[in-house]
Amino acid sequence: MAVLVNKDSKVIVQGFTGKEGTFHAEQMIEYGTNVVGGVTPGKGGTLHLDKPVFDTVKDAVVKAGANVSIIFVPPAFAADAIMEAAEAGIKVIICITEGIPVGDMVKVQAYIDTRDVTLIGPNCPGVITADEAKVGIMPGFVFKKGKVGIVSKSGTLTYEAADQVVKAGYGISTAIGIGGDPIIGTTTKEALELFINDPDTEAVVMIGEIGGQLEAEAAKWYKESGSKKPVVGFIAGQTAPKGRTMGHAGAIVGGKDDTAQAKMEIMRECGINVVDSPAEIGVTVAKVLG
Q1: Most distant CA atoms of the chain, gap in Å
Q2: Can you say which residues are annotated as belonging to the binding site?
Q3: pLDDT, tens digit, 9 for 90 and up, residues 231-288
C-alpha cells in the first residue's frame, strides 16, 4: 500500500521529448517506474526512449491507459498542460515546472476543483513510492522501502529527511514534495491526511517553511483528528528576515503567524514532535517509533 503512485501507476510525461523531460524520464524508467509514453504535440506516432509519443494527453489515456502525468512544460504553457491532463481524465498530475505565473495558477485551481483529480506542485520535486515508482526529479537511490511518509515544501530537505530515516534503520512509504509556490494543488494538510489514513504508513515527517498557513492548518487538523500516528515536524527559515521572499515564491513572512517560531509553537501545541534542526529528523523518527 502506498499513496498517490505505485508500481501499477501508468505514467506519461508531458514535454516528453524536451531536454528536461527526456533526462528525467530516463531516470524514472531506470528506477522501475511504469512509464507508458509521453506527450509532445506534433510528434504523435513516433517513439522516444522506446516509448510511444502522443499528440495529446487524451490519446495517451485512450491508447495507453495513462492515469498519472508528470509535467516538464515551460512556464508559459504549463497551466494549459495541467488543465489538459485533468480534462483527459488523468487522476494524479505532478507538475515540476517552476515559475508559473500566479494568475495562471488561480485559473488552474478553479478548474481542477471541479474534477476528481489530485495535483501535486507546481515547482516541486514530485512523488516517490520507494522501490515502486518515482514520478519526479528526486535521487531515487536515497529512498528505501519502509513505513515512514514524508510531506515537504522543500525538495532538498525531502531527500535529506529520507536519507536520515533510512540511516536510522527505517524506510519510506511515499514521499510527497508539494512545492513552495503561493498556489499549489495539494496542501500540507491534504498530504498529511493521505498518510494518516494509509495503513502502511506508521509515522510521518512533515517539513515546512516560513510563509503562509499550510503547516498550522495541517497541525490543527492532526490534533482534531485524534490520530495516534506520530508526526515529526521541521520548519525551514528560522533566521529569515521579515518581509523578504526566501527561496520559494511562497516563502515570505507576512504576519506574526508566518514565522518559523510561530509555526513550530503551533505544531508543538498540536502534538507534533518538532525538531529545531533538520539534522535531528532521523533520530527523532527512531525515537517516536521506538
Answers
A1: 56
A2: 17-20, 43, 96-98, 159
A3: 999 999 887 776 666 667 666 656 666 788 999 999 999 999 999 999 999 999 999 9
- Secondary structure string (H, E, C) spanning 141-172: HHCCEEEEEEEECCHHHHHHHHHHHHHCCCCE
Distance CA 262, CA 273 (A): 15
Same fold, 11-120 and 138-289: yes
What residues are paired with 129 via a beta bridge?
Answer: 133, 174
Q: Which CATH superfamily, name and number, covers 138-289? A: Succinyl-CoA synthetase domains (3.40.50.261)
Strand 145-152 to 172-177 pairing: parallel
Query: Which tens digits make up the pLDDT trace of 138-188?
Result: 999 999 999 999 999 999 999 999 999 999 999 999 999 999 999 999 999
Which cell numbers in the block locate residue 246?
A: 526566501
β-strands 231-236, 203-209 pairing: parallel
Binding residues for substrate: 159
The domain ranges of the chain are 11-120, 138-289
Catalytic entry in 248, 264, 266, 281: 248
Choose which CATH entry (3.40.50.300, 3.40.50.450, 3.90.950.10, 3.40.50.720) describes domain 11-120.
Answer: 3.40.50.720
248 is catalytic: yes
0.85 cut: is pTM over it?
yes
Q: How confident is the model at residue 211 (pLDDT cuts 50, 70, 90)?
A: confident
